[in-house]
Amino acid sequence: MNVDQHLKVASWHMEQARLHATTEHACGCPVTPEYQKIIDEVESGKIEEELTCAAPQK
Question: Is the pLDDT of residue 54 over 70?
Answer without folding.
Answer: no
